[in-house]
């Protein structure tokens, strides 16, 4: 910032507010001058940027051992840009000036790019705005970001010097009609069918197989088909239900004396994050995928029974943490963010150990506002959690705490000078600012005092009153 000039952007309300599509952004541009200044122009812009940067080493003639300088790649794409000229070609006096502005977040990107010039992997048509995003890669200088901000530029008339002020904004799209409970999908894992040998074959089974001409089929085994039930789309704070069901194969059946006992021995659930970043404008631009795997659930020795043709619940209160890492899935020109849900289930069935593995795509939706989720937020035991009351400021209370000596005087035990001195010192040390909620004297001792004790208590009260007056007079001196 140049000396004698103070350029600022002030947003109405909270600067960390989470904006949605079609939401207004209001504020003002403040300019403070210490002297008269000729102005060539002052404009405010509302911009959305998708930027990627990276460096790579280029090895000439295929020599991988030769150390070569790193080549820089990068691209900066504008998702949208709205500009307004506040003033131009005038002279401002030495004081503080301000101008109001108002913008609206669009629903989709504005520019259209040709795949012949930008590459075949670019999105040609306008698409919904991606959320605010920032990522640092392991490659030196590698980063990717999606940012939205208000920019103010002040151009002096006397020189070509430009002063700039930037105020970043946080944006996240809103998905309409998001269900409170995610919808479940089913996938039969036919590639993981396993066979179990029957314990015995009865006479009726042999006769049935001979009459139905199924002698070519291995009727001495039972085929078990696992099915995993999972959600494809889920939002932060939503429960992620996972179920497992086991069923017999098409050509398998159980006899009267056959029974299958299966139990779940272990469970591992992990979520993988894949961020694909592209640099450059070639037909085949350099590309990198940053992967991150997080183990969410790991259980051993569960010993949970599984019944045939019935869904068995695997997760209880399994929810996404609503933090900076939980970015909604999106795809834009040079950055793509997607997720995958991996489940590994250890099964014990007739003294055999088997492992069922399933990897499915998981689309993370934008967070749902907290108000409709309060009524459905359940813990493991299914008891709804009552939300905390909203903070309401109030005036400080002027009520004084009760006198400890007055409470102590209810005790039938006669007070001595030593005990009263100890009580007085402890009362002064504690401050006696907060009223006691629990009685300091046992309930058994809170009895109606006898008439003969009234004189002793009255004398003690008079002694306390004289002692207080003496302390007050000493304090005045």
From TrEMBL:
Residues 422-443 have a biased composition (Polar residues). GO terms for molecular function: protein-macromolecule adaptor activity; ubiquitin protein ligase binding. One of its GO terms (biological process) is ubiquitin-dependent endocytosis. It comes from the Eukaryota. InterPro entries: Arrestin-like_C (IPR014752), Arrestin_domain-protein (IPR050357). One of its GO terms (cellular component) is cytosol. Residues 419-449 are annotated as: Disordered. This is Arrestin-like N-terminal domain-containing protein.
């Amino acid at each position: 910032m140049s000396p004698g000039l103070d350029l600022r952007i002030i947003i109405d309300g909270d600067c960390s507010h989470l904006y949605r599509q079609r939401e207004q952004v209001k504020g003002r541009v403040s300019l403070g001058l210490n002297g008269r200044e000729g102005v060539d122009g002052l404009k405010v812009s509302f911009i959305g940027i998708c930027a990627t940067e990276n460096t790579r080493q280029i090895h000439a003639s295929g020599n991988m051992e030769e150390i070569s300088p790193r080549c820089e790649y990068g691209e900066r794409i504008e998702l949208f840009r709205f500009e307004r000229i506040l003033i131009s070609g005038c002279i401002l006096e030495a004081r503080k000036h301000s101008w109001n502005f108002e913008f609206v977040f669009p629903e989709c990107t504005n520019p259209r790019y040709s795949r012949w010039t930008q590459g075949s992997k670019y999105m040609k048509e306008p698409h919904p705005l991606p959320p605010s995003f920032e990522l640092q890669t392991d490659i030196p200088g590698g980063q990717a970001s999606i940012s939205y901000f208000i920019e103010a530029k002040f151009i002096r008339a006397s020189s070509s010097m430009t002063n700039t002020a930037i105020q970043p904004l946080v944006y996240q799209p809103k998905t309409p009609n998001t269900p409170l409970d995610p919808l479940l999908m089913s996938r039969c894992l036919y590639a993981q069918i396993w066979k179990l040998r029957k314990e015995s074959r009865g006479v009726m089974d042999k006769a049935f197989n001979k009459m139905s001409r199924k002698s070519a089929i291995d009727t001495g085994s039972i085929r078990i088909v696992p099915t995993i039930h999972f959600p494809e789309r889920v939002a932060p704070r939503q429960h992620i239900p996972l179920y497992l069901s086991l069923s017999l194969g098409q050509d398998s059946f159980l006899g009267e004396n056959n029974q299958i006992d299966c139990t779940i021995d272990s469970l591992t659930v992990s979520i993988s994050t894949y961020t694909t970043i592209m640099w450059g404008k070639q037909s085949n631009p350099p590309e990198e995928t940053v992967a991150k795997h997080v183990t969410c659930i790991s259980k051993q020795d569960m010993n949970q029974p599984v019944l045939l043709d019935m869904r068995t619940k695997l997760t209880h209160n399994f929810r996404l943490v609503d933090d900076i890492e939980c970015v909604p899935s999106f795809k834009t020109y040079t950055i793509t963010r997607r997720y995958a849900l991996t489940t590994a289930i250890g099964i014990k069935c007739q003294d055999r150990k088997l492992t069922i593995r399933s990897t499915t795509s998981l689309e993370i939706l934008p967070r749902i506002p907290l108000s409709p989720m309060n009524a459905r937020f359940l813990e493991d035991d299914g008891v709804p959690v009552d939300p905390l009351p909203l903070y309401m400021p109030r005036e400080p209370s002027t009520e004084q705490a009760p006198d400890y000596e007055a409470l102590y005087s209810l005790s039938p035990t006669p007070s001595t000078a030593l005990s009263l001195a100890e009580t007085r010192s402890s009362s002064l040390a504690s401050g006696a600012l907060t009223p006691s909620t629990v009685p300091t004297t046992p309930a058994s001792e809170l009895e109606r005092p006898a008439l003969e004790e009234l004189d002793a208590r009255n004398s003690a009260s008079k002694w306390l009153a004289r002692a207080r007056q003496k302390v007050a007079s000493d304090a005045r001196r």
